[in-house]
Amino acid sequence: MSSLSGLQRDVLKLYRTLLRTAKNKAGVTHSPLEKLVQRKFREEAHSVHRHDWQIIEHMIRQGYKQKKVMEMPGFSAASIKTYDH
Questions:
Q1: What are phi and psi of 49, to 5 degrees?
Q2: Band of the pLDDT at 1, cuts 50, 70, 90?
Q3: CA neighbours closer than 13 Å in the CB half-sphere of residue 1
Q4: pTM of the shown model
Q5: 3-state secondary structure of 61
Q6: Distance separating alpha carbons of residues 61 and 78, to the nearest angstrom
Q7: Residue 57's pLDDT is what?
Q8: Phi and psi at residue 58, in whole multiples of 5°?
Q9: Sequence-distant (≥ 6) Cβ neighbours of residue 33 within 8 angstroms
Q10: Per-residue DSSP letters for 13-58?
């Protein structure tokens, strides 16, 4: 098995971070927020070509912004925006 590229590692790190944040926010595993994060990642992974690194980098930045929103006090539901390209 080949090693992951830097961009692939960044995407995987973001995915794990968002799942961890969703789990900590809800206090339980497999929360609706956690399932939403999984679904959005799956949808967006299929919507972007793997060689479109500029779009992927943009989506990573958007993901970290979404993480900050999820961590805010009073946040109760996710409205994770799908990137339109």
A1: -75, 140
A2: low
A3: 2
A4: 0.79
A5: helix
A6: 17
A7: 96
A8: -60, -45
A9: 22, 25, 26, 70, 77, 78
A10: HHHHHHHHHHHHHHSSTT-HHHHHHHHHHHHHHHHS-TT-HHHHHH
